[in-house]
Amino acid sequence: MLSLPSSSSPEAWFLRRILTAVGQPPIRLDLGSHAVSPPGASPIATVVIRNRVALLKMMLQPEVGFGDGYAKGDIAVEGDLVGFLEAVYRSWPAVSSRRLRQLAARWMQSLRANTLRRSRNNVHQHYDLNTDFYQRWLDAELVYTCAYFPSPEATLEEAQIAKMDLVCRKLQLQRGESVVEAGCGWGALALHMARHYGARVKAFNLSHEQIVYARQRARQEGLDSQVEFIEDDYRNISGHFDVFASVGMVEHVGLSRHAELGRVIHRSIGNSGRGLLHFIGRNSPQPFSGWMRKRIFPGAYAPALCEALEILQPGNFAVCDVENLRLHYAKTLEHWLARFERSAELVSAMYDAPFVRAWRLYLAGSLAAFRTGALQLFQITFAGSECRRLPWTRAHLYEAEERLRQPKWMQTMS
Amino acid sequence: MLSLPSSSSPEAWFLRRILTAVGQPPIRLDLGSHAVSPPGASPIATVVIRNRVALLKMMLQPEVGFGDGYAKGDIAVEGDLVGFLEAVYRSWPAVSSRRLRQLAARWMQSLRANTLRRSRNNVHQHYDLNTDFYQRWLDAELVYTCAYFPSPEATLEEAQIAKMDLVCRKLQLQRGESVVEAGCGWGALALHMARHYGARVKAFNLSHEQIVYARQRARQEGLDSQVEFIEDDYRNISGHFDVFASVGMVEHVGLSRHAELGRVIHRSIGNSGRGLLHFIGRNSPQPFSGWMRKRIFPGAYAPALCEALEILQPGNFAVCDVENLRLHYAKTLEHWLARFERSAELVSAMYDAPFVRAWRLYLAGSLAAFRTGALQLFQITFAGSECRRLPWTRAHLYEAEERLRQPKWMQTMS
User: Fold this and answer.
1) Which of A38, A47, B16, B361 is 20 to 30 A removed from B378 (C-alpha atoms)?
2) Do the Cβ atoms of A313 and B323 come within 8 Å?
3) CATH class label, A10-95
4) Which residue, among A243, A200, A206, has the nearest Cα to A224 in the 3D structure?
5) Is the CB of B93 less than 8 angstroms away from the CB of A385?
6) CATH number for the domain running over A116-413
7) What are phi and psi of A205, to 5 degrees?
């Protein structure tokens, strides 16, 4: 349905082409002089395109054009931003899957491998933002990965602690064991492992800001003899450990480096160790969002489960357990987005309005992607071929609902 | 160490070559005139090769030659059969993995696709043996797949019921829902779903003997209005269902038919359904045992997890949960082998001594493979892209240890 009479103008034709390219979701595109929406259902939201340059950029590169236009303020979304993005994600599969696969293939070819230097730059661009900025909308422990909500009503704080403890239980972590963590953020998981499980942890991270913060926390909590934070690339991990853990780093490794990561893991824990990979994934290979890759997470790629298994196959690791926590990431992002909105003015003063809009779009888009299943969250638990510490069943993870609601460390703390 | 002086004879050279080909496990090969064992550890068992024809066949095709020679009685194992097979499985990876991969590749190429007709013949060869034979060593419900032991002390009977119930819980089966089961054996799971969950089940199987038995049971239990047993290939499944389940059939589908199975599943449950695949798998692609494929399971292939995911990717199914039940299959096989040995004389009267020896080797070899991790057992739970019945966590599977020890139907039965 063209809502204005001048349907044969180039502008209207452009708008219709954009609508078709994203699979005709129930949204309205409004250029001021012209507006279009698909026939049938009433539009969820209106995308206001404020000038023709923004329209042209969206024509040429729909995703990047939209994202940049939105951040700049040349494009606005009137109505429910998350609902609008969900509608687009839902309509997307209606576009020929063959075309998508071709797109994916092209994307893969254009992937620039994450070399040591490029990885450092990529990490710097995202994670070396002021810690104060992340404190505005993350939980108190600054855990910047999918939380685990024992029940949907749990707070974000509870859910991040529950996630860290779930990871430790999946790893069957024992007092005195050694752990290497690849990609440790602000150090919350490494400190949790030391504090509640008596583990000795070496945690690697390329972000200078995060490592400085994590070291300070370790000292403050008297855990610096148990936890060592190392500002270095996962490829430079050396030494032998009982356990390998990586929460939210595989996405930054890149497909072409999966085998290399696998060699690092095998070198670190041999055939007798065990490990866990926690990462954003897909149902099947697909390109990562172009705009996100350009503006938010340079070098990122969310692998299909099958692609992630390429990390584990060469070392003959056995997959013990895979859990999909997609709904938990949607819930996590609801919390993050709500907290972010409450701090938007403050953030705007720290950076500027385009920064706030870009981050809003990133958080809302991620929420929509997890809600619709465009993105998945996988936790893979794996074991070396000679690992002796295999649980008989998974019942120990869920011993009682009460235990989940009131985890071990809470009981022992009182 | 060559235990006899005539180490330079052709026979000794042959024996040494065989020992090297399997990676020098701590076993003794004894040809009567000559014997060899690797230096170091004392041998777990002695393989007595009774004539030179058997030796030659083992030289040419180690696995098939050994298996056929053992069944025929030309080769005997003195000592612990399972322990001997475990030692061989353990030494196997020491053989160059590159060579293994080449072998695998060759094997793949030589895979004969399982056409409708070939599948029927394959199934007939194994599953149309007299039901009375299987009753000698399976559980009372005749479940011929990996059981689930809530604790290692559970009986086989308890563990098979626990497995069927675990499958139903993973599927979150609801009263009145429709299920299609691909490969239903003697019907135990379909009947369990109808009896305890009020499901309506269409169950497919190519084995005439099994279908006849299953139909009779359904009538006897008054479940024939809820459960329909259909003697047909999974490719001929038609209709729309809430749930797809397949326990122990993927291994018989063959790699080249994975995409076809995926299309059948998608046609059956669309984007809103959910399903479960339970199958014998591997850590990475490897050829299936040559002897087993030739003598026990024609057309069989145990896929790597990644290969099995090829079934689910084209339909955009999300993997919700993967559980590795390898240790449970080892325990299941311990029960089967012990019961089989107790009935060996009876079975020998039904068939003959070579049949008993072949089945002993098959059960002992499978036990060794699961114990050593040469084989894995995967249960994949998956959901369509529009599935609304996703559990919030997996805690419902393990609500309490007590619930696992005394499952729902036991409580309601009393």
Assistant:
1) B361
2) no
3) alpha beta
4) A200
5) yes
6) 3.40.50.150
7) -160, 145
